[in-house]
Design a protein that fits this description.
With 379 residues, this protein is mainly α. The protein has one domain. Helices cover 83% and strands 0% of the residues.
Amino acid sequence: MDKAIYRRVITLALPVLVSNLLFTFQIITDTIMLGRYPPADISLSAVGLGFTLYHMFFPLTMGLVTGTIAIIARRWGEKNYDEAGRVATDSVITLALISIPIALFGVFIAPHLIYYLGARGMVITEGTKYIQAIFVFYPFTALVLVYHGILRAAGDTKTPMYVDVILNVYNVLMNYILIFGKFGFPELGVLGAGIATGTSYVIAFAVYMLLQAGNKLIIHPVYSRNVKYRLDTIKKIFKIGIPAGIDMGMWSVSSLVFTVMILHFGTVGYSAYQIGLRAESVAYMPAFAFGIAATTLSGQCLGAKKEEWAKKAVLASTYLCLLFMTVVGAMFILVPDYIAMVFTGDKGVVTLAALYLLIIGFSEPALGAFFTLSGGMRG
């Protein structure tokens, strides 16, 4: 296969991989710091439940972002740049409108759901704080994600990476300050972690607004009274995005079912499960990165009427992803205990988390192939 295709895949995928790792690092930072904030099992369980509910809405958001990437990539491949910009505008408006009721649901209703997931006592109290803190900023999260998708569809994966670097530096600093009460700020514990995570997306969106105002983005939405909201474009985004969202949603539903089951075994078992998920989320990152590269390249090639190149790009993405995921899976199998100990010093939690990682390590290569091929099909 042409080496130029592999180089193009790597050029697109590596910045996305870094961005995804940074996103995961944001979650891991919360977990590590709260794993050392007593009582650790309560803090970890509260954040784990909060993130589980928060993640329930990601399939809808990311599904629509996937639809946006596919359509913009096609228009970009056709060199129809004006239409690509109009699609970006339609997508941003749609995500903004959808994210508001999601935020309201999260703030006022989601906290009551953690009881039915099996939480009790302090886990409910702390989990409610975390849920409300992150959901109130959900519109900014959705807007940052759609800006990421718009730029990646046009072939710019570096700008989202730089924005994510700023987001994560802010998040780590504010986590430390607000969880433990440093530099004159109050000690907020779990609530502090939620505030730090939520406001980091406000910062990221502000960075995008500054870049757009300075005309530094290769493609961007247009904010004007004369802009028309085009339902035909929205239908196309939903046509591609909803199946992708359902696909992602099945993972969220299965995670929710596991959560309910595992909570019945106590907070130690659930904390171990959360640590396993956090570590496993790192393993997913190469798969997501190469999946986005496959979507972007297949869409651009098909838009340019180069079907053979589209097939080659998807295959190259899959081969490279398999290589990355095999390495990650091997690490889970060979050193699961050391990976678990990064998150907590609790021996009981470490033992159970290591067992989870050992078992899941064997499935990583297959997951990588699945995510990448699915991404290519969406393009």
